[in-house]
Amino acid sequence: MMASALEDNEVLMYSVLEYEKRPAHIYLTSTYIFIENSARPSSHDNTLDARPSSSLKNHVIDLREVITVRGEHRSPPKPRKFILSSPRKPSLLQEDKSPETNTFSIFMINRVAKHRWRHKVCQFVCRDYGTCQLWITKLLELLQNPEWQRPKRLLVFINPFGGKRKGVKIFNEKVRPLFELAGIYSEVIITKRQYHARDVIYEYDLQTVDGLVCVGGDGTFSELLNGLLDRVNSEGGVEQTFRHTPKSSALRIGIIPAGSTDAIVYSLVGINDPVTSALQIILGDSLGMDVTALYKKEQFVKYTVSMSSYGYYGDLLKESETLRWMGPKRYTWSGFKTFLANKAYEGEVSFLLASEEDSHPRDQTVCYSGCEKCRKSAMEGQQVVSVKEPQPEFDLGGASEPILFSAVSKRASFMMKDGWHHVKGRFSAINLVTISCRCDLTPIGMSPASHLGDGCMDLILIQDCSRLQYLRHLVRIPDSKSDQFDFDFIQVYRVKEFSFQPITEPEDADEGEGQERGGCGRRKAGHTQMKNSSSAHSVWNCDGELLDYPSLYAHVHCQLIKLFARGVEECNKEDSMQCPACCSAYDSDK
Ligand SMILES: Nc1ncnc2c1ncn2[C@@H]1O[C@H](COP(=O)(O)OP(=O)(O)OP(=O)(O)O)[C@@H](O)[C@H]1O
């Protein structure tokens, strides 16, 4: 295999070097190092016995997974002592007689467990200093490959209060040393208040950095996302009006998880591990992710990437906000209380289905790194596929002349008009997810077959049901072996646009505009205010932020934002590193 791989790649350098205490033929191409072990050194002049050893494995190092290369600076050798102390174990190559190094180390990615990366070091001993320098220089030059888009300067925001309040420690102890090893300069801003990160992004000279990094949870990421998109829209002259087409940013965002849920990074990487995320940033991994624009009726509110949820998860978040002192445990407690309350809310859901050739939330596919579906969507430059450009029907009174009307269950009615589907009823939960939304509690995600960059959202409608029914659904969510949507009170759709309208508006809904926005949609100050929310209405939980009014319109934009991430790598089905995050029921059934 190595021989054929070598034939396909031009060899730029070749040497016989010592690797793992044995001589080896080392071939360098523009993207790989091929290591071919030899049996033993010849007795004179350090040439090698070319016979391959059957007991030794050959290796390939992918330069795209190399962090950096360093010369090993050792203290000057003492030849006489060396010979006396190890008479039977001379170096396989010529002994280093100069104080300069003849050894170089390659720092590279090591996959240690399911989706978890660490780095390891491979050492090579050369005959002399000159050869060593040649290898180091050539390798460093190849690592600069502009196609790999590795960052050199990053603007890092740390939320010191996210999750278990360990953001600063995580960055200083786990991330900063790796960035320094990779030669990345990072300017660090520890946020002092909510919206600090967003306000810095509005003003910062973004030309001077290669990317932004968020050390925090989903809420902090949301600030960076909205700050960046507000900024590029403003500079690109895009007014954030109803159903606007936002500008995308060339600047990528990296996420170092240090929050409570970390659902976004979990969905991107398959794990919420700061070191893995830092290594993906260093390698310059790039991934396009869909972004959903939310509107209160026709007024733009914000961009989101994970889940907007009304009913159960909205109530849960509202309850948990009063219990922040409990840390991440507040979600478990609030979840329990919300479950006991077992509320349902009346309204009409309207949505524009994804086109025929698009996939379905129950089509049993998982979005892995290099996903073909996402790649196709990006190539097509899909924004919204809609032949007639239909508009949502907000006015329930005017929802006239349905083309199709049928009962989908005892609890809801369904109709279709101008491509828009309408479901009227009482809902325990309405969940709209842009990505799979995995986290520790739901390792396969709220919608396991959702894609990161297909330009679609998954709509999960849970109609009014008993506590027992809801519990049966809830316990299936983290279970990779069962289908959490397989209930008659749950419907799932893959959609492009969505709206929700309560049967009656809350009295002060028009005053609860939430965010005050300046020119070109920039928010001046403050965030969505909690307004009178009667028990007839729930609130929206949008990426962990409360929007306390029920009417909502959502419009997804295909791969609007670029992230420093690789996507969830598929576990090797044969080895023990399988995990529930990607080896789901779908896989095991095949
Ligand atoms: N210095 C600060 N003081 C108070 N709030 C802050 C500060 N810095 C950031 N924030 C805000 O804190 C909120 C929550 O932060 P974050 O999302 O990082 O943590 P989390 O809520 O624990 O995690 P997750 O969102 O993953 O559940 C964010 O909305 C962010 O805007």
Automatic annotation (TrEMBL):
SUPFAM superfamilies: NAD kinase/diacylglycerol kinase-like. Residues 73-96, 504-530 are annotated as: Disordered. Pfam families: CERK_C, DAGK_cat, PH_CERK. It comes from the Eukaryota. InterPro entries: ATP-NAD_kinase_N, CERK_C, CERK_PH, Diacylglycerol_kinase_cat_dom, Lipid_Phosphate_FormReg, NAD/diacylglycerol_kinase_sf. Gene3D superfamilies: 2.60.200.40, Probable inorganic polyphosphate/atp-NAD kinase, domain 1. GO terms for biological process: ceramide metabolic process. GO terms for cellular component: membrane. GO terms for molecular function: ceramide kinase activity. SMART domains: DAGKc. Residues 149-298 form the DAGKc domain. This is DAGKc domain-containing protein. It comes from Lymnaea stagnalis (Great pond snail).
